[in-house]
Amino acid sequence: EPTRAAVLGEFGGLGFKVDGHTWAGKTWGYRGMPSLERLTQQYIKLLRGVFDLEASPGLSAAVYTQTTDVEYEGNGLLTYDREVVKMPIDKVAAANRGQFPPLPKMLTVVPAAQSEAITWRYTTDKPGADWFKPSFNAALWKEGPAGFGTRGTPGAVVRTEWNTGDIWLRREFALPDAKTEILNLLWHHDEDVEVYLNGILAAKAGGYTSGYEDTDLAPEAQAALKPGSNVLAVHCHQTRGGQYIDVGLVKFSLP
Prior knowledge:
Elements: E1 6-12, E2 14-15, E3 31-32, H1 36-55, E4 59-65, H2 89-96, E5 105-110, E6 119-123, E7 142-145, E8 148-149, E9 160-161, E10 166-175, E11 184-190, E12 192-197, E13 200-205, E14 213-216, H3 219-224, E15 228-237, E16 244-253
Parallel strand pairs: 1-4, 2-3, 8-9
Antiparallel strand pairs: 5-16, 6-7, 6-10, 8-16, 10-15, 11-14, 11-16, 12-13, 12-15
């Protein structure tokens, strides 16, 4: 509004537990980070968004959650006992001043629903215990284009309705004969998700995202990728509110 300052009252919630420096041996965060490197990357990404909002439409202030861990909440820049600064101070300080490294370019390797209506096999009936393995026969599963969920879920591109508690997905994709590059998952999940590549757990997360986000592959899953045919398998569990699942693979390169 012309006569009122625009303030982002709370943002952040990037959780990371530092063993030996917690209030009660366990922590909780809105978005748990698997490593300090990932925590730093996501912090810089959030601050880049804050400065974009300052430029337009004119954000005046923003409040990060939070300065320190608080009891069970592990969202702090510092641990509960103030003994550990979780991220490199120079990188955090630069981001707080609006000084950012070059933004890497994201290149699609296996498309998500944002760009293509990729067909998956899927079922909402609990499959056998080996459902995620490459040798599993999913010929009796249904077929449908991604993404899967209910319309109105924030950030979702729904092409196949899914409104039950669980869904299991499988698809094959090909990689070129060239040496496999380091890849990242691109996913949008609501709620809990686990993703397998060639039968190896690649990533899992609880809760939900409100849009597409990239995340690291587990090293074992990265190593399991091979030239030619590969298998991507996904399970998503949902309890309330909107629901959605879609997964792709991307790689990053500096401009």
